[in-house]
Each structure stands twice: as C-alpha cells, then as structure tokens.
Design a protein that fits this description.
CATH architecture: 3-Layer(aba) Sandwich
Number of domains: 1
Strand order of the largest sheet: 1-2-3-4-6-5-7-8-9-10
Largest sheet: 10 strands, mixed
Distance between the termini: 29 Å
Radius of gyration: 18 Å
Amino acid sequence: MEFQGRASLVAGVIFIGFITASSSLAYELRQSCQTFDVPKKGAYCLTETKGSTNPDTLYFFHGKGENENTWVDLLGTQAVMRYWEEIGFQPPRVISISFGAVWLLTDVDSNGKQGLLQAVADQVIPMIERRIGGIQGRRFLFGDSMGGMNASLLFLKRGHLFDRVVLACPAITTVSPYDSLGNIFDYLSRTKANLFKLVEMLLLGRINFPSEEAWNQSAPLQLAPVLLNSSSPNLHVSCGSEDNYGFQEGARKFSEIARDRGVHEVIWSLLPGEHCTFDSISIAEFLARP
C-alpha cells in the first residue's frame, strides 16, 4: 500500500492520511490511527472509503505478529475490498484494534488479573465510538488467525454487540496445551499440521493459560455448546484445508456446533491452502448483504 498526504498529529494520533491501493484497488481510503491506554496501551486505526455512505462499522482483529494497520495491508482483506469494488458496494468504515503482536480476549489474564475481553467490550469499543461521533448502522466483527480466536470469544460472550461475525482461519484448536502426548500426536496425524507450528501454538497456550482450567474457560470449542443459541449473530467461518496449525479441524467443528445450537445463519467454507487461507469473496458477499 502507498500512503499519500501523510501528516503527523498530536493528542495520541499516530497519523492521518490517504491511502491509494496498489494497482489492484481504486478505492481512496482515509485512515486515521490513535493510541489509547484503557485498560492497557493499545492502538486502533479507522479506515473510511471516500464517498461511501454505508452507515455500518466493521471491527477487525489481526493475527499474531500483525498490528492495527493490517486491514489495509493484508492480501486477504484487500481481496475483500477488491470484490466490493467490483460489485459496486460501498464499504463500511473499518476499525482495527491492536494491543501488540500477541494478545487474547480472555476474562482473566495469565497473572490472574482482569483480562482484555471485558475491557474491549465495555471500555475500548465505547471509547472509540465516542471519539468517532457514534455509529449509525450495524456492527460487524472480523478476525483472522489469532484475531479469529479473539473474535470467536467476543462472539460467544458478547455476541449481542454484533450483527454478523467473520472468523477467518481462526486459531481454534481441538487439542489443548495440557493434552497428553498421545492426543497431541493424534492431532498432528489427523490434521497434518506442521510440527514446529504445533509446538509454537502449544507453548503460547501454556504461556497465556497457566492451567487447564484457565484454558477451558476460554477455549471456543468448550464454550460454544453452552453459550451459542438462536439469538447469536450470523456467522461465517473459513479456513485452508492444509492449515499449518491444523486449525481447519477446530474451525469446522466450531461452525458445526453453531449450526447445531440454532445460530440462524452459519456459513462454513474450506479452501485449498495453508495458514492463513480464507474465502475472501464469500466473506465479502456475507458482509455486503442488506
């Protein structure tokens, strides 16, 4: 992406400017980014499309190692915007939230203190919406990879905030960091996950969830059969069939549970590809519906 007209501002604003996409996008996007300190240091970027009158707001959670700029930088989300452009759809404004390279929306953090889930739902989102003058339309939620897990937790525990939720290659796994070696190797065999990626995933799980009880309190597949129901928002889940972490198994199971629990609309899309493959066209259509 190329930034044009970029200017520094004060009062916590990182930058404000106009983005013209590479050759693939003709949309002119205005992006403004700000920091916040509630309840911990974080940042968000607001991306608006010049000329769009769409009143809806899409919240975006990025994957591990990414940041609040990922919405405009990621090839998959660029493909979503490209499809919207092709069908003449006016995009919603997008708010991408970040607390750094790795963060999880848990009720309790690894130190036993209040986690980010309550803070994001009850403090960060209302604070952002006050800053931007409120919202007029619907809220949508979109998360990829780590952000997909975070979006699934907000979908499960604060689903009433959103009209539609997209989980793209979500970090939802059928194996626990506290599982036996036998179960872990069975998972490796079934999903064809990359051994090094699997070890990375399990180590991150141990770091962020200090006990099996803590893991179960935030594991989407443990929570979904209890928390999902017919009033949960419509859901789109997609993943690559050769995901390096084996997330395709957990993503499929999560969508099946959602359907069984009576969620009105559940779309499951499996595409050939590794992590983080997701169905940009189907997602774009899902979010573009009236």
